[in-house]
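re: ur question from yesterday

yeah so i grabbed the chain u mentioned. its 400 aa long if i counted rite. heres the sequnce exactly as i have it in my notes:
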Amino acid sequence: MAVIALPKYVTKVMKGLESAGFGAYLVGGCVRDMIMGKRPHDWDVCTDALPHEVMALFPKARPTGLKHGTVTVSLGEGHVEVTTFRTDGEYADHRRPDTVSFISDINEDLRRRDFTVNAIALSLSGEVIDPFDGRKDIADRIIRCVGNPRERFQEDALRMFRALRFSACLGFAVHEATYSAIFEMSHLAAFLAAERIREELEKTLLSPNPHILGQVIEAGLMDSYLAGSGGAVPELKGFGRLPKNNEQRWAAFCAILERGGLISSSEAFLRQLRLSGSEIRNCGEGASLALNNPPADSLGWKRLLADKGVEIAMCTAAAADVLYSSGSLNVLREVLNSGECFSLKQLAVTGDDLLALGFSGIELGETLRLLLDYVIRFPEENERERLLNLATGMERSHIY
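ran it thru and got these structure tokens back, copy pasting raw so excuse formatting
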């Protein structure tokens, strides 16, 4: 295991538990990341201390999942999620256990976890508890359920999305039995909240291997959101060339789905998945514009920027790149980096300037738009005196 120094606040929490006579182990993703030589972003500790005992030891601790034994301990520069060893009862909703029982055996606690790579515990002294050979699966780059995968997915259907998301993020293969169980149990995805599905899809979209979303579709995990694919899975390999920007990748994903007939409306699809209003607008319109004659040159991109703004233009370019390998993002970046005018804010004259010339109302707004279009075509003409003279000529000729 790679030697990674723990943050002081994590060490304090674990020593505090041990000093009070309790066990304390790092567990889950932070242990997996350390084994892989990565610096964890989040730190989770499991213990035989009951939640009220943890809160008594750490006055600034707060209950964040008391029903499931989780307390958040904040110390100085960071926080640690501390959870009591437990076993889970029935999962009536295929997402959360109806009841939990607190226990003192860490091996039993690890048995309830999703994947072997996340079912490894590590003490401050360096003791590793790995009853399901998670270290071997990390070495072999495999995602495998703890125990029977059908039972794990029956308990929590989100684990099917998580298996493929871990595959995409870590570059691991999903074990054959686990993969087969995803196909067999995919109907349980219908029980999941759209917000939870969206989070997993977005993490996969932003991963180094977003094409894994093809497996998500193929397995039937998105059947509640997609029209029948007829067995055809869209080609998603082009996503790896896009920036890791959530709106741009959502726009490209929607464009691919809409072109393949898997969705009829990008905006409706994104609304189902509970994206924000601005994301729905930017991604949905970007996908639609990319599917319907996107700009072919810098002039076209400047006009789109003027009409729709930077966010929608970026989404359009990203979707066009995936659809047509068009190089649109590069062209658009060149336009943005050129400093050339594409918005009224960049125009060398303002509404006040035109008011002083006698323009008002509709005529003023229309003249500004005409001047902007002129400057978009002739960027070198974006000079105050030149545009004021041009506006005077427009006013005299009543061309609005």
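noticed a couple things. The mean pLDDT is 94. also The longest strand covers residues 78-84.
anyway ttyl
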